[in-house]
Write a structure and sequence with these properties.
The protein has about 425 residues and is an alpha/beta fold. The protein has eleven helices and 19 strands. The chain is about 30% helix and about 20% strand. Strands 1, 2, 13, 14, 15, 16, 17, 18 and 19 form a nine-stranded mixed sheet that branches. The chain has an eight-stranded parallel sheet with strand order 3-4-5-6-7-9-11-12, with helices on one face. It has a two-stranded antiparallel ribbon with strand order 8-10. Helix 4 runs parallel beside helix 5. The radius of gyration is 22 Å and the shape is elongated. It binds pyridoxal-5'-phosphate. Pyridoxal-5'-phosphate binds next to helix 10.
Length: about 425
């Protein structure tokens, strides 16, 4: 990649250990040891830090500190610390709580407040805490940001533009983003109020078409030309996909090359290029183990569901890669059946139609692992009906050496 390149070196430190990033987290060498030892009544989140570091490196190698982790995807402290350990220094935040959470862990982090609709209190407090980048998609929000920062001159404003490009499994159309006419006017108005002015968009989550990024960049480029002003930042958002059954993601490099191609064609090479991945960074780094509490024919009642970490399995009807955890004793039959799953709450909408393919002899007490559930799984859990899981354990083959080569966190920053 030529147009998007690392601008700041990732911190290089000689010494690292994982005691800080996995502080307070039990570590096991395999999932079955974890389930046996935890003896949990709730589902268990299995965290694979090596996988997270591997994914972070892919994005950091391309975008460097201009890769903002969208913390909504998974805000668990172990996930955040592991990302920091991997070199992630910038974060896309949507709320005051997210801001406080990140600053409490990493006082020197760079935060981008990318929710286009914020409360006045949140803007004021974010600014006082040191946030300088704010998104907007309407004149009233722009005025709100100006007023609540006391007309500060050191703020960067990011206009969210609606791009409506097809290809996302999880469309984010219709809620945020200025249309073309409004965007032209808003850019002209915001120019003189911003230290740096940028545009951002989101092609939708789990975007299966790399070309959607190419088309979106061309769309926003035309708007910038029509506004006849200079901008400083192009933020291509999140939406990068991962593999799920029935949703095989194109290689990530195709996305990067479509972005690169569009940037070159639109003459945007001199801009700061940001991205805001959530799902693509964390999805593969966590799995959820849930226990079967009752079997009724091909229906399994498990201790996690739509109000827990399986929202997308229920509401979006996504099927995650699943397997029965072989804990001990006889291995399962190789015969499989299609199962429908029910979550633990009393609601009849707490159902995951699937079908989920599992050994035909699964029964009460067996644990089933849902892979690729690191994004919008742990993050989406509610406490409805008293069911949720606080238990997250790390699965590390080697307890002392976890990827990340020599990218350790600076101890001076991380004595939390
Ligand atoms: C503003 C913004 N940025 C980034 C993301 C992360 O998107 P994804 O998880 O699809 O990469 C989202 C997701 O909703 C978002 O709303």
């Amino acid at each position: 990649m030529k147009a998007i390149k690392r601008l700041l070196p990732v911190p290089q430190l000689n010494v690292f250990n994982n005691s800080w990033m996995l502080e307070g987290i039990e570590q096991y060498s395999c999932s079955s040891d974890a389930i046996l030892n935890e003896n949990s009544n709730d589902a268990v989140h299995l965290f694979f830090p090596d996988k997270l570091i591997e994914k972070a490196e892919i994005f950091l190698n391309i975008f460097s500190d201009r890769c903002l982790y969208a913390i909504k995807a998974n805000p668990h402290p172990a996930v955040l610390k592991t990302l920091w350990h991997a070199g992630m220094r910038s974060f896309d935040v949507a709320s005051l709580r997210e801001i406080k959470k990140v600053f409490a862990l990493f006082p020197t982090a760079k935060l981008y407040f990318m929710h286009p609709v914020k409360s006045r209190q949140a803007i004021r407090e974010a600014y006082s805490l040191g946030v300088r980048t704010f998104a907007f998609d309407h004149i009233d929000e722009l005025n709100k940001i100006r007023e609540e920062t006391d007309f500060a001159r050191d703020i960067d404003l990011m206009l969210r533009i609606s791009v409506n490009r097809k290809g996302a499994a999880y469309s984010l159309d219709g809620k945020f983003g200025a249309n073309r006419e409004d965007a032209i006017e808003l850019l002209q108005q915001a120019r003189s109020f911003s230290s740096k002015l940028g545009v951002c968009f989101h092609v939708g989550s789990q975007c299966m078409r790399p070309q959607a990024f190419y088309e979106a960049i061309h769309d926003v480029s035309q708007i910038i030309d029509a506004a006849n002003i200079e901008i400083d930042i192009l933020d291509v958002g999140g939406g990068f996909p991962v593999d799920y059954p029935d949703l095989a993601a194109p290689p990530i490099n195709l996305y990067f090359s479509e972005i690169n191609k569009a940037i070159k064609e639109c003459g945007m090479e001199q801009l700061e290029i940001l991205c805001e991945p959530g799902r693509a960074l964390v999805a593969e780094s966590c799995a959820v183990a849930a226990r079967i509490e009752l079997r009724k024919g091909r229906e399994l009642f498990i201790n996690d569901g739509v109000y827990g970490s399986l929202f997308d399995a229920g509401i979006m009807n996504w099927t995650y890669p699943v397997e029965k955890l072989e804990i001990s004793g006889m291995p399962s039959t190789e015969l499989t059946d299609d199962f429908k799953l029910f979550g633990p709450s009393c609601d009849s909408c707490d159902v995951m139609e699937g079908p989920f393919k599992l050994p035909s002899d699964v029964s009460e007490g067996d644990w089933v692992i849902f892979y690729n559930l690191g994004a919008y799984g742990y993050a989406m859990q509610s406490q409805f009906n008293g069911f949720h899981s606080d238990t997250l354990v790390a699965i590390t083959e080697n307890r002392n050496i976890i990827g990340a080569k020599n990218r350790a966190m600076a101890p001076v920053i991380h004595t939390v």
